[in-house]
Design brief:
This protein is mainly α and about 230 residues long. It has nine helices and four strands. The strands form two sheets. It has a two-stranded antiparallel sheet. Helix 1 runs antiparallel to helix 2, helix 1 packs across helix 4 and helix 5 packs across helix 8. The longest helix has 29 residues. The two termini are about 25 Å apart.
């Protein structure tokens, strides 16, 4: 995990949270829900927080450009510089010795045959912030019609046919999960190779009832060996 990326992404998250809170307070005053005596102060600091957040994004982008893995990540449609930086800041790829380890750390693990979920009274066994960022990556992929979108679309059709008892929201969430797990698997493979770390035998990716390996290059990732020889 890069120290500078981590510090900047944490600062960005804090500023963004505060900016949203101030925005909500300004909106409440405009609706007449709260006293507007000091509205000008709220608006003033809300504007400053927006500027501050933009400045952090500029610094984050500048630092991110020096990260080799991010340079590869952004070549995949749907993954911008800021999102890529946020993902990389949360992961120590050396500790993720298997793709399953990365899936679980990101909140996409399987426990007792089912997707791992938070249990009341127990701490999370995964990085909740990383899972939120991955959700944003998935949403961006759908919005930009990323090559990964075909995984989502195929999964939606499959779940609609195989699980008609599921709600549309459930089918959507399951399809998103399948898409982002494949992207994480590709990130794991490319990043580990880039760092010269061992990559085990090709992992298994489920497609309906069949299992097979899907190469990252099919979705826009550069060939790591070719990049290294440039």
């Amino acid at each position: 995990m890069d120290t500078y990326l981590s510090a900047l992404t944490e600062l960005r998250a804090d500023i963004q949270k505060t900016r949203i809170q101030f925005g909500n307070r300004v909106a409440a005053v405009e609706r007449g829900a709260t006293d507007g005596t000091y509205q000008h102060y709220l608006e003033q600091w809300h504007r400053r927080l927006i500027i501050f957040e933009d400045e952090i994004d500029e610094a984050l982008a500048d630092v991110a450009r020096d990260e080799p893995i991010i340079a590869l990540m952004v070549q995949v449609k749907g993954v911008g510089l800021i999102l890529a930086a946020q993902v990389v800041a949360e992961i120590d790829i050396r500790r993720a010795e298997t793709v399953s380890a990365l899936w679980r750390y990101a909140g996409y693990g399987v426990v007792d045959g089912a997707a791992e979920r938070l249990k009341k009274g127990e701490p999370a066994h995964f990085n909740r912030h990383l899972k939120t960022i991955c959700y944003k990556v998935a949403a961006s992929m759908l919005r930009t019609n990323s090559p990964y979108r075909r995984i989502y679309d195929a999964a939606r059709v499959y779940y609609e046919q195989a699980h008609p008892d599921w709600t549309k929201a459930h089918q959507h969430a399951a399809a998103l999960r399948k898409m982002i797990k494949l992207w994480l698997a590709h990130l794991w493979e490319v990043w580990r190779k880039l760092e010269g770390l061992p990559v085990r035998e090709p992992y298994i990716v489920a497609s309906d009832a069949k299992h097979h390996y899907i190469a990252p290059q099919e979705f826009g990732w550069p060939d790591v060996e070719a990049v290294g020889n440039e």
